[in-house]
Every structure is written in C-alpha cells, then in structure tokens.
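stuck on this:

***
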Amino acid sequence: MIKPDAGLAGESLDRAAISSAWETICGARRTVALTHANPDADAVASLLALTDLCVRAGHEVVPAVGDGELPDTLRFLPGAARLVPPEDLSLDGVDLLVMLDCADEMRVGPTFKRHPEWFDGRIPIVNIDHHVTNTRFGSINLIDPDSAATAELLGLMFLELGIDFDADVATCLLAGVQGDTLGLRTPSTRARTLRLAAVLLERQADLDTVVDNLFRVKPFSTVRLWGLVLSRAQQLGPVVWAEITPEMLATSGAAAAEGEGIVNFLAGSKGSRVGALLYQQPDGWRVSLRSVREDVNVAELARRYGGGGHPRAAGCRLAPGDEARDNFLADLAARLNVLPLIGG
C-alpha cells in the first residue's frame, strides 16, 4: 500500500471542511449523490469515485446524473452501471444529498425542476466543487477553486484523510482531472495536479483507457458533427463562434455531448479572445465559453447571463430564438472590445 501523502494539498485546502464533509457522508443512513446535467468527465468520474468508496465502506449511496444522460465516451468509467435514472430517484429514507461539480443547485437541470423541494434546506446538502462561482448553497461547502477539477479535490481529500482506494477509483479520479485540464494542458494545471496524477498512476489508474476514451478514439458520428459545425463557424470581432442544431445532430447521427471539444478548438483561433459554442435546445440555447487569453475572464461574462464557471471555461443559458443568440453574441463582442476582463 502506498502511504497517503497528507502534504500534497498544500495550504489552500480547507481541512476543516474536508473532515466535516466526510464525517457527514459517513454518518448518513441513505445518501443521494448528484452531479450536473450535460455531464462531463469530471462530473461523472467524481460521482462514481465517491460512490465507490462509500459503498465499499458499507454506506448506502444512490448516484445519478441530473438529466440522466451519460455520454457514450464516459461509459468506460468503472461503476457507470451504478447510475440510477433520475426519474427513479426517491428521497424516502434519504437523510443527505451530496452534490458534486455543481456551481449551484439548478445545475442538476431536470432533477431540480422536477423536485425543487429536495433543495429547500430540509435535507442537508454536502456541496463539493471547484468552481469559483459556486454559490455555497450547501449545509457543508467543500469548495476549492485552486483545484483543476472536482476529481482533484476528491483525490486530495482522500489522501488527506488517509483513505485507501483501488485502481477503479484511481481511474475515475484521473479521468476527471484529465477531462477538465484537457490532458493536463490548461492553466488550471498546477504542480499539485501533476503530483496527484502521479499518485493515481501509482495506484494503477488506467491512463491508456482514459486517454483513448477522452481524446484519441472518436465515433465517426463525432467526425461528421465536427465537420458540419466547423464548416459554419463564424467570427464576430473578437468572438469565434459556432452552433449545434438539432438538424446537425440528426444528419451526423451524433449526440450533443459529442460536440463538447469544439469550443476549445474555436478558442484557439488566432485573433479571437473568446470561443463560443451554442447548443440549440427546445427551451433555449446552452452556451459554452472558452478563452486561452490571460486578459479575459469568461466566468465574469457568463455571470452577466446567470451562468458561471472558471476564468477560462464557463457557460450560461439564453432564451430560445435567433434574436436571443444574435443579441448575446453582439453584446459579448462589444464587451470584449472595450473591457480588460482580468481576474475573478
């Protein structure tokens, strides 16, 4: 067994919150663990890693994704079969909610709309997240914006507490970290992120499988979708943007989740300050924003529209219709032309 490295986290981690969160989770009789709608690797991997450890310790934990949609690219994650459809969730006998990678309660999407009473404070919530825009809605808030991913925060928590974990949990944690850092390439990647990745590899995390599923191997439907989307990409001043419509998904045979990497590609265009990808949905537009520029904080931009996220990666939602889309893009371009959006 590898000795846990309690000093890995450095000084930024809230050790009191770590202890309080874990003691509360272990003291619950029955827990529902939730992550956000339109889940990414970090969301699902963090959910499964925590569930695995809790179940092995004899605790009853029911994990679910807020909208019940698990991208095919994430089905490789150990424990994915444990996920429960949100429509099958019940709070009978549940005395704790754990929410992972959610900046606010509404990020669980359909589950929040279907059961707003679950989040009114009658059931304690342990809120574990790394978004700087987190609203601290939990009874216990373990929030660390210095972590590159919620999976990094969980890994540091397990090591801090001296909790042993196996290759399956290590693989989940590595997938979460790799997913949110684009393979340890984003500015959020710190020295401790790399040290944690090394520990996870020592715990036999399956790096090849993680990298294949997240970055190397793509369905042909993804290739077709990217072709359709990028062929219609546009530039509006400092904004390079594209959209994904239901027609594009039908033509390519792809799921919406297969377009997630496009916004990073757009953000890297020379001359752009922000890349924007807009997903057309029945209830409006879901917007992903990215920037590779140090002088732009897309979390601040997204916050103006009720969204949030990180300085380099954020999102928000817009009302339906082309007018809402066009007004947003024009406003975004105008703000980028006049504002030095630095910092948080």
User: Anything to note?
Assistant: Residues 322-338 form the longest helix (17 residues). Residues 1-6 have pLDDT under 50 and may be disordered. The longest strand covers residues 274-281. The chain has twelve helices and eleven strands.
